Amino acid sequence: MSSLLISGGTIIRVNGEEKADILIQNGDISLVDSEGSADQTIDASGLLIFPGLIDCHVHFREPGLTHKATMKSEARAARAGGVTTVCEMPNTSPPTFTAGALADKVRLAQEVTDCDIRFFMGAVAREHLAQLRTVWASLLPEMQRLKARCCGLKLFLENSTGDLKTDQDLVEEAFRLCAEIDCPIVAHCEDPVLNASANAAISDQDIATHSLRRPPESEAASIEHATTLARRYGTRLHIAHLSAALGLEVVRRAKEEGLAVTCEVTPHHLLLDTSRYEDLGVFAKMNPPLRSSEDSAALWQGIADGVIDCIATDHAPHLKEEKEAGSPLSAPSGVPGVETMLPLLLTVAATGKLSYSDIVRLCFDNPNTIYSLGKEHIADGADADILIVDPKEEWEIHAVSLHSLCGWTPFEGAKVRGRVKYVLRKVGGYAVDTQGLTNRASRGVV
């Protein structure tokens, strides 16, 4: 297809909405009047047009854990949910500790067309920080190429999937280095000492005790420590999957102080709470764990106040049988979410609690800026990377209709309002990917 006209749609921007027709030629956007013509037309009357969304926290499990997921399977899930750029975490096998491991992931991602995959590096030893410096500070063309695909450094201040907890002396060294080379740090913030103490005090083996074994005080103390290091060295710090009111207040104070601290929250921490252990069981187990309904309400207020910068899914697929094997507390932590994020947020927007512009701010504009991803807004001359969404279509989420290899969702049966109808991406340097434009998949995803 050489040209495509999208007519009658409403473009959603951070600062509001705009009625405009969009002409796409050779993968590039032109905003035109209604008299524009093209080889093919989409009537977008009553539909919303978003930039392709960014999920800045996913685990696509490749290499090494491909029985759980692959880049291709999870990229299909991302695209189906309107996410066309993701930032993937380092806890694969092998972990992304070296320039070589990063290069291998970049090579694998070149075979993926459904979304643009960027990668975090990790570190549990000094030689890993040396590798990060090489990627971020070297003038060699190959290192510059890898840096362009690297979002920053991920630090686990407590163990989670992959057991990549960074020792305290190395954490401080990482903050010092990342300030020097201007590399952002994203931190999984939980305090291992407080977690160990809480865990030792609980004998009950019920799955709901997972939230008590990793209490909100642990998250808040760890965030406090991380922001102290960010203050000391001037490091750019992003707090991953903020889950509770106590930690939110630490972030709020850091922002009021003017520190370069940002944060994200997940759909599951916004929409689920500890009461859901009763029906979800091990499928409600993640790190940090679910919190109280009061904590969820505080996170929504943090979005309204502008303290929370991003919504990201922490998409962490494990197979259903892995979740159900063994004792409940030994089940692997993590839930899938990259495909369900947008319909869930559109459903909230239908209630007036969130605006469409908020979705662009939280799931495109802010992560794009925080990680310098270079994604373009919908504008003349920009690459075509857009979603066309029907905000009124009502449907139910069922795992059988989703694309993640894990085959389940904590939002099974949820009634949602709003569905992606088309995803148009510029791929191969010039062409517009219109898969599903005239032959939609049976599951309603393009």
Structure in words:
The protein contains 15 helices and 18 strands. It has 446 residues and is of the alpha/beta class. It has one domain (52-370): TIM Barrel. It has an 8-stranded parallel sheet with strand order 8-9-10-11-12-13-14-15. It has a 6-stranded mixed sheet with strand order 3-2-7-16-17-18. It has a 4-stranded mixed sheet with strand order 5-4-1-6, with no helix packed on it. α5 (168-181) links the parallel β11 and β12. It is globular. The chain starts with a strand and ends in a 13-residue tail after the last strand. Residues 434-446 have low confidence and may be disordered.
- Domain count: the total is 1
Could you tell me the CATH topology label.
TIM Barrel
Number of helices: 15
* Helix coverage percent: 25-40%
Structural class: alpha/beta
Low-confidence stretches: 434-446
CATH architecture: Alpha-Beta Barrel
Rounded to the nearest angstrom, the radius of gyration is: 21 Å
Spatially, the strands of the biggest sheet line up as 8-9-10-11-12-13-14-15
| CATH class group | Alpha Beta
**How many angstroms separate the termini?**
16 Å
Q: Give the DSSP E fraction (strand runs of 2 or more residues).
A: 15-25%
Give the mean pLDDT. Answer: 93
Compute the number of strand runs: 18
CATH superfamily: Metal-dependent hydrolases
Overall shape: globular
What can be said about the biggest beta sheet? 8 strands, parallel
Helix-strand blueprint:
Layout: E1 3-7, E2 10-13, E3 16-19, E4 21-25, E5 28-32, E6 40-43, E7 48-51, E8 53-58, H1 71-80, E9 83-88, H2 99-109, E10 116-122, H3 126-137, H4 141-147, E11 150-156, H5 168-181, E12 185-188, H6 192-200, H7 210-213, H8 216-233, E13 237-239, H9 245-257, E14 261-265, H10 267-271, H11 277-280, H12 293-305, E15 310-311, H13 320-324, H14 341-350, H15 356-370, E16 385-396, E17 415-427, E18 431-433
